Structures are given as C-alpha cells and as structure tokens.
Amino acid sequence: MNKKAQSLGLTIMSVIFILIIGFTALNFLLPEVTDARNNLNCSSAATISDGTKLLCLVFDLTIPYYIWILLGVVIGSVAMRFVF
Questions:
Q1: What CA–CA distances, in Å, run from 82 to 1, 11, 78?
Q2: What is the tens place of the pLDDT at every residue in 15-38?
Q3: What sign has the CA pseudo-torsion 19, 23, 28, 29?
Q4: CA-to-CA distance for 73 and 82, rounded, in angstroms?
Q5: Which residues fall within 8 angstroms of residue 15, CB to CB, at 6 or more apart?
Q6: For residues 58 and 38, what is the distance between their CA atoms, to the nearest angstrom?
Q7: Predicted pLDDT of residue 61
Q8: How far is Cα 56 from Cα 50, in angstroms, rounded to an integer?
C-alpha cells in the first residue's frame, strides 16, 4: 500500500481540525469588524468621506477574505496529499 492511502485519514482529521479552529477564530473576529464599522459610522452614506468609504469597504471584505483563505488552506492541504 502506498503512503498516500495511509495518510489520507490523518489529512482529513487535520483538515477538520483546521476548519474548527478557523471558524472559532472567526467568531472572535466578527465583533471587532462590527465595532470598527460602528466607530467609522459606515451606515450613514451622507456624512461619510471617500477615505472612510474605502476603510468601510476593507472592513466589509475582511470576513469573506478570511473564509476564502481558510478554505484555500484546507483545499490546499488536501490537494497536497494527493499530489506529493
């Protein structure tokens, strides 16, 4: 039996562990993003300046980028097991 088949179970357990830790860390990140958006007053479009609009956009994209990076790490670790 080759090494790829033997270590697939360990890879799957590691990926599940990474997902659990990643989504747990996401719960700590969500209130910080909400506080930052509230402090910048991102909800009122009339009183917001261009620089603040850009910061609001960056804070809005923080959570999707974090999820994309987390999924990229998980998919990359599984794909690495099949390639190497």
A1: 14, 10, 7
A2: 999 999 999 999 999 999 999 888
A3: positive
A4: 15
A5: 74, 77, 78
A6: 14
A7: 93
A8: 10
**Confidence (pLDDT) at 3:** 62
What's the mean pLDDT when you consider all of the chain? 86
The token pair at 9 is 């179970």
Token pair, residue 38, equals 């509230």
6 CB-side CA count, 13 A: 3
- CA angle, 16 then 17 then 22, to 5°: 100
Q: DSSP string covering 18-39, please?
A: HHHHHHHHHHHHHHHHHHHHHH
Count of positions (residues) in the chain: 84
Chain centroid offset of residue 17 CA: 15
Q: How far is CA 61 from the centre of its chain?
A: 10
